Amino acid sequence: MATGRTHRPATRSRGIPEATVARLPLYLRALTALSERSVPTVSSEELAAAAGVNSAKLRKDFSYLGSYGTRGVGYDVEYLVYQISRELGLTQDWPVVIVGIGNLGAALANYGGFASRGFRVAALIDADPAMAGKPVAGIAVQHTDELEHIIESNGVSIGVIATPAGAAQQVCERLVAAGVTSILNFAPTVLTVPDGVDVRKVDLSIELQILAFHEQRKAGEEGGPDSGGPAVAARAAAAVADDRKGPDGDMPAVMPA
Amino acid sequence: MATGRTHRPATRSRGIPEATVARLPLYLRALTALSERSVPTVSSEELAAAAGVNSAKLRKDFSYLGSYGTRGVGYDVEYLVYQISRELGLTQDWPVVIVGIGNLGAALANYGGFASRGFRVAALIDADPAMAGKPVAGIAVQHTDELEHIIESNGVSIGVIATPAGAAQQVCERLVAAGVTSILNFAPTVLTVPDGVDVRKVDLSIELQILAFHEQRKAGEEGGPDSGGPAVAARAAAAVADDRKGPDGDMPAVMPA
DNA sequence: CTCTGTGAACTAGTTCACAGCT
DNA sequence: AGCTGTGAACTAGTTCACAGAG
Question: Most buried by CB count within 10 Å: which residue of A74, B178, B185, B216?
Fold first, then answer.
């Protein structure tokens, strides 16, 4: 990933591990809930439980941000909410465009979690002319032709791609050319981007497949306790036997919508 | 997390690293695309490029499954598709229920990537009586009252939660009590489950927050830092502290018209 | 000679356990 | 006392680099 050479071995203070960054939103969510209940302080143990991690990890994570706790007491909820928000860049407003207003795009447009975290849906964009002008989540959908203009005039730097897989790369290129430098990709395809552009992907079917893997393992476990290890040879042989069948006539691509 | 269980150092053959499992669906997708184009074999280099990883990692990943390649040549596409499918448990049929048919639930129901990978939507379930009977993606929505009955009579072991956050834990408990042992959670909340139940979560706003973090860093590189004073806690807390809403917006638009 | 498969070296991430502040 | 903050030990994951199959 873009992590390639961003390596700055220098300044220790700005070296927050990626794994920690990925957990900050989790802590923020837990802290927000506490804040709403007007809880003034929280210990690493309590907060860790609320966020679903262990407390040593949480303390270590916070230690990368600075020393924001009070020994013997815990963390001040409001203060920590502020610090994490600032670290994540949520104290500023991020205009976002969503491209591809199918089922998923509409769900995203309606998703409350965006707006409440400093993200503002600046525009909804779809290639279907019939969609143009239709309101989704209170915003009129605009045609793809407007893409560059929207990005530039709103200073959008974050784009969300919720198009079919076949359109994603092209949309991505237009977004990047227009100035977008961070992309959240829901299309089940690998996007190629120039250096300096970040891509994160969310693939719904991948998550299910990972679950299926573990589920299958559970099921196998009951049949025979620790059935032997030489399974590999046997499996390989069996597989070769039924080798080249057209496994599934099943299907075309993996496209959303 | 469910990772709690002790690693069995024994039988190497069954010790596929979690990171590798998470990439298998990616390889499978790339291979499926090649298969459709009737490409017979592929090298680790080519396949790695298509999947967006580096080739050493890919070879190492495959080495955990067995020796399915041919030195000097590469991998047989069809054979590898079969091996990975089987490893992931996709050669069997997984009935899945989706609970919470809002925008997101509907998007999931319509998502082609599920059906094409051995997942079958056995039922759509919603708590709103007004939804009952309405067809979504060609399937009539059923009321939550039917949940236990549906799970049991269809032998469902995988459940997808797309309800608002407030309902998620309760739905989760009912799913688990009825026999579900793998859950894909889209609600922005931490689910507590008994041992032996797997949970994977997808949080749309977390991904955006991670992007914002990196985006901020890029911007900060050039101009002056916003160097927020430590005292400004109130503003940030107000900005961040609000909803606790579901993934789909029951919430109307957050945007001023 | 080409490309896989894999030990070995390295890097990132997690957990432990305790010093030290309040 | 109680709890944070953190070096040190450990574990998981990645990359290197090359032996060896075809």
Answer: B185
